[in-house]
Amino acid sequence: MDYEKICDQILEIDKTIRYVGVYDYGELYDKTRKGLKSYLTREETETALSQAVYRWSTRKKTSEKIGKPIYALAKYEKIYRITVPIGGAGLILISTEIDADINKITDKVLEIVIKSEV
């Protein structure tokens, strides 16, 4: 999979998307929208992604009973954070401005993920 291309495609969805990172097998591919400064350092971002991988593994434990997890959403005071699985063990982490249309963005991200996995 071309993770750099996926980052670019996701950033193109909406101007409110601040950051896109793909974390797979310990490697991080990421992009921040030009002109924006990240709230987190690179190290903090990598820590957040490793924590997200762990949380995602716990979500999968109940999938037989409630279904496969599709995405997770967290709202913070300054951003929304969307987490979407990709590939075998990878995750996409997206942060948006707080005024983002989360449903529109999430639907389009899922379309990109499905197309990339075919």
Task: Considering the chains and any ligands shown, give keywords for the structure.
Beta-Lactamase, 5 strands, five-stranded antiparallel sheet, globular, 118 residues, alpha+beta
Strand order of the largest sheet: 2-1-5-4-3
CA-CA gap between termini: 10 Å
Percent range for β-strand residues: 25-35%
| Assembly status | single chain
Helicity range: 40-55%
The first-level CATH class is given as Alpha Beta
Number of helices: 4
Secondary structure class reads alpha+beta
Radius of gyration: 13 Å
Order of helices and strands: HEEHHEEEH
- From the coordinates shown, what is the CATH architecture? 2-Layer Sandwich
The CATH superfamily is known as Dynein light chain 2a, cytoplasmic
Q: Write down the overall mean pLDDT.
A: 91
Taken together, the total number of domains comes to 1
Q: Which shape, going by the Cα principal axes?
A: globular
CATH topology: Beta-Lactamase
Main β-sheet, in a few words? 5 strands, antiparallel
**In total, how many beta strands?**
5
Q: Could you explain how this protein is built, in words?
A:
The protein is α+β, with helices and mostly antiparallel strands and 118 residues long. The protein has a single domain (3-117), classed as Beta-Lactamase (2-Layer Sandwich), CATH 3.30.450. It has four helices and five strands; from the N terminus they run αββααβββα. The protein has a five-stranded antiparallel sheet with strand order 2-1-5-4-3, with helices on both faces. The longest helix is centred in the middle third of the chain and has 19 residues, at 42-60. The mean pLDDT is 91.
